[in-house]
Write a structure and sequence with these properties.
about 70 residues, mainly beta
Length: about 70
């Protein structure tokens, strides 16, 4: 399973005007899980740029079943 967890905590403050009546805060925690199968675990790459999480998970190459002939005597 791939589990992605993010947490957001921010305070919205007006720096120029310290005489404010209301101060807003937002907070949240997020979690999402995905079942990932047939993935090459050693080749997983992730990047986080401009608020976008990009995860690259190449699939494993399917193993070809080898057939072997057995001679009956």
């Amino acid at each position: 399973y791939l589990i992605i967890t993010a947490e957001k905590s921010s305070i919205n403050e007006d720096v120029e005007n310290k005489n404010y009546i209301r101060k807003e805060r937002s907070y949240g925690k997020y979690q999402r899980s995905f079942y990932i199968g047939n993935v090459d675990k050693n080749a997983i790459e992730a990047s986080f740029t401009n608020g976008i999480l990009k995860i690259t998970m190449p699939k494993k190459e399917e193993e070809k079943l080898s057939t072997q002939k057995i001679e009956i005597k």
